[in-house]
């Protein structure tokens, strides 16, 4: 676990867009991470990363 | 700042993302490409008022009515909140249909509502427009490990054939309930 682009800390829920990209609510990091299909490195689309 | 987020929902028509910002008793909307969110439901403190949410956990975005359906875990009820409105409407969880710590809510294409009624160890089903539910999985107040019972189910989802999948959390398993 951790708060960089390859880690999550208590992921609790997911949502998908129509291209099967994944949004993950990364609870303990208070952020939502976005993963394009097949990519293990996420980007933060909501919340603040690195805190 | 987001605080203790839980459920998220994606609107594939507008590409908006909705986040249950549980610790702040609100739901946020993030428009595509924006890193700044808008409060779309709640955000008026913890309470029972129609403009308030109380520990929102699960949420479902309903395309047909452009609304969110939100499970409030602490004040156990399900609220329907049209995007743009300042108030929600209770659709399940008043006294006659008491829920206990409902974690998640989901809808089928007919608008029927499925609630993971977590602390009651069951899944409740509400026909569209009806506030009196019935139990379709688990037994009220009874938990265990055999196939007819659940133990604190957190999430509930449906497939296209309307089979039900339940994360039976304290049993560390996923249970499937066939529609037919």
Beta percentage of chain B is: 35-45%
Distance between the termini of chain A: 14 Å
Count of helical stretches of chain B: 0
Q: What is the rounded distance between the termini of chain B?
A: 45 Å
| Multimeric organization | heterodimer
CATH architecture of the domain at 93-180 in chain B: Beta Barrel
Number of domains of chain A: 1
Largest interface: A-B, 19 and 21 residues
Using the coordinates above, name the CATH class of the domain at 93-180 in chain B.
Answer: Mainly Beta
Using the coordinates shown, work out and report the CATH topology of the domain at 93-180 in chain B: Thrombin, subunit H
Low-confidence stretches of chain B: none
Characterize the main sheet of chain B: 4 strands, antiparallel
Structural description of this entry:
The complex is a heterodimer of chains A (51) and B (180). Chain A is an all-beta fold. Chain A is built from no helices and four strands. Chain A has one domain (11-47). Chain A is globular. The model of chain A has no long low-confidence stretch (mean pLDDT 92). Chain B is mainly beta and 180 residues long. Chain B has a domain at 93-180: Beta Barrel (Thrombin, subunit H). Helices cover 0% and strands 43% of the residues of chain B. Chain B is built from no helices and 15 strands. Chain B is globular, with a radius of gyration of 16 Å. Chains A and B meet through β1, β2 and β4 of A and β1 and β2 of B.
